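Morning!

As promised:
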Amino acid sequence: MTIAIVDQGAADPDALPVYRPFPGPASKRIVVGYGFWIFLLSDFIMFSAFFAAYAVLSGETAGGPTGKQLFDLRIVAAETGALLASSFTCGMSALAVQTRQFGKVYAASFFTFLFGAVFLGLEINEFARMVAEGAGPQRSAFLSSFFSVVGLHGIHVTIGLTWLLVMLAQIATRGFIPNTMRRFLCFALFWHALDIIWVALFTVVYLMGTAT
Amino acid sequence: MTEETHAHHHEYGHDGYDSAPGDQNAIDVVAGTEGYLLGMVLAVALTAASFWAAQTDLIYAPGIPIALGVFAVAQMGVHLVFFLHISTGPDNTNNILALAFGILIVVLVVAGSLWIVANLNHNMVPMDQLMKMQR
């Protein structure tokens, strides 16, 4: 069965409509990209449950330290800057993958990994400091939900960094074949999505937690 | 058509009808770089505005969380448009509809939890009175 579809994208507005045959099923890149998009949205839904738990429990400090006493906004600002820079260089490497430039992919990905690792280091350092001060996840319901939601994001970043290394190894050994280019598209989507979750995290947890 | 030639045919996730999320209609390195740079500038500006709003005395204190929420939603929009390349074009209809459904569930989970727990909290007998009643 052939279905004709009107092409309205012609440059000349007075041109007669052009009919072209329906192209059939979407390409694998579109199907895989869309499937990964559905996964990312379900990941957002999982995070929403953790956010809901945090929002409900953020006041239940059980006599322990509050967010205002524990959070250092300078560290949060540095983490935010690192993750944003990492997202930008990830975009640069995605462009370089599409134009098949090995050098640019490696250079941009080096900075993506570096900034991601800086973010993770700052977060681990913050967690270690809080646990050492006796403000670990077992101290209060507020701290349990804090470590859960921020830690879940940190685990995602760790998975993302591992994935980036795997992608670079695949590009180095297999080149820019459709498979690796498709996977890099999914990795870039994943990395940018983590930045979106971080926006919600620093707003809800850190900024609202320290504002009066 | 084999998978390989098919994939080669629509290498960039755009077949004139649909686009993969993250893909743009055409590969243009200069325009692409400009897009990421613009997104970066907007994201940094909105982040700075959020951090400023959280610590300023200029905003009426109970209004600060509202200001923070507005900045956060705006920044998420910037990330979606400039980094994930989700657009309102006809090739993005499926991506947008999936996103809209995801947002619906996220809002239901967060707002619903807060509403229910606030309501339970409001109706709960204070703990000292509960102890007296048990005696």
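The two ends of chain B are 80 Å apart (CA to CA).

Hope this helps with the figure draft.
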